[in-house]
Amino acid sequence: ACMSWPFRQVINTKRFDKILVDFEVVRTLFGFPVGAGTHTVRMELRGLAAYVFQHELDHGKGMCVFDRFKK
Length: 71
Fold this sequence. Notes:
The chain is an alpha+beta fold and about 70 residues long. Helices cover about 20% and strands about 40% of the residues. It has one helix spanning about 45-60, and strands at about 20-30, 30-45. Strands 1-2 form a two-stranded antiparallel sheet. A hairpin with a 2-residue loop joins strand 1 (about 20-30) and strand 2. It starts with 17 loop residues before the first strand and ends in an 11-residue tail after the last helix.
């Protein structure tokens, strides 16, 4: 279900149950970058965490659940 969609409909979409995510971490102090550079973190997500990450990644790309059915 998506909280931004009216009626809170539950729509099953195909998602991976396990994903590997790489992301960059910037050291901050009070929201401002400090120090030099970033470092990469690799994280394995499974189950609900993997599902939610993929769902939110779609939102970051400007997609909603119905966009997945248009293809």
